[in-house]
Specification:
CATH superfamily: Luciferase-like domain
Shape: globular
Strand order of the largest sheet: 1-2-3-5-8-9-10-11
CATH architecture: Alpha-Beta Barrel
Largest sheet: 8 strands, parallel, barrel
Order of helices and strands: EHEHEEHEHHEEEHEHEHEH
Helix content: 25-40%
Length: 290
């Protein structure tokens, strides 16, 4: 099982290019960065000290969420600082970008990284945030599927044309194309629900299941594989990455359970802290690399 790292990528933690260099030197396989374009100030219930809104889980959102740097710019810097480290978004909120701009940004990043990029995408959960981008919450998955098709058209067609419910453009040229034919692998970030698994089985090259129950994830992977077989897709082509969102050191036993569940990689969250603290966490995890 490969080990990846998740940084919240704020302006007060280790810079992405420096972190990427440190991660590669220790043998980690990948670096993943999240995205929130902004966090709207809540109108209703808010944390009494930070003012942050409530998440769907019922917990207040961490203050780091309003400090996230742009992941694509940051990963471009990380690409130039490394040679083997895979680079991914975990996740890019695809509905908050126009497909024409996003397709070019991703293709450029894919080229800069020599094809090391993994396009992790999600539909989002913050109603106010997506609303500021003109996206209705109830449309978010229809928008994601359509925008992904539009991006893939621009990646693969010499003269792309697209006519959809939310996106349309006339015949157009766009370069560069990604290095990999068809574009970089697309990993869907979804809740581990019947609906989420169905989206992965239909549209994903990879899966970033949002769950904290590894045993349930093991059953869910089997379900996705079964759905893929029914659709004529090869389950062996699906790369599952288990994301650990808790800001704590995951034990060797936990990582072994994850490996036994059949996931391709574990993505381990790094603390939002100064460089020395982040390096200590990297060292703590590097022992797991064998």
């Amino acid at each position: 099982m490969k080990l990846g790292l998740l940084s919240y990528n704020t302006e007060y933690t280790m810079r992405a290019d420096l972190l990427a260099r440190e991660a590669e030197a220790r043998g980690f396989e990948s670096l993943w960065l999240p995205e929130h374009t902004h966090i709207p100030v809540p109108v209703g219930k808010a944390h009494p000290e930070t003012g942050m809104p409530v998440q769907p889980s019922g917990e207040f959102l961490e203050v780091e969420y309003r400090h996230m740097s742009d992941p694509l710019t940051s990963l471009a810097a990380a690409a130039t600082a490394t040679t083997t480290l895979r680079l991914g978004t975990c996740v890019c909120l695809i509905n908050q970008h126009h497909p024409i701009n996003l397709a070019k940004q991703i293709a450029t990043l894919d080229r800069l990284s020599d094809g090391r990029f993994i396009f992790g995408i999600g539909a989002g959960w913050n109603v106010a945030e997506m609303g500021d981008h003109g996206v209705a919450f109830e449309d978010r998955w229809r928008q994601l599927r359509e925008r992904l098709r539009a991006v893939r058209a621009l990646w693969t067609e010499e003269c792309a044309v697209f006519e959809g419910e939310f996106v349309s453009f006339a015949e157009t040229w766009q370069y560069p194309k990604p290095l990999r034919k068809g574009g970089p692998p697309v990993a869907l970030g979804t809740l581990d629900t019947p609906f989420g698994r169905r989206q992965v089985a239909n549209h994903g090259d990879g899966w970033l299941p949002l769950t904290f129950d590894i045993e349930q994830t093991k059953k869910s992977i089997a379900d996705v594989h079964a759905q893929m077989r029914k659709m004529g897709r090869n389950p062996d082509d699906l790369e599952v990455s288990l994301l650990f969102l808790n800001d704590e050191v995951q034990s060797a036993d936990t990582l072994k359970i994850a490996e036994d569940a059949g996931v391709a990689r574990a993505i381990l969250r790094l603390p939002v802290a100064d460089d020395d603290t982040v390096k200590r966490r990297l060292d703590a995890y590097s022992d797991s690399l064998g």
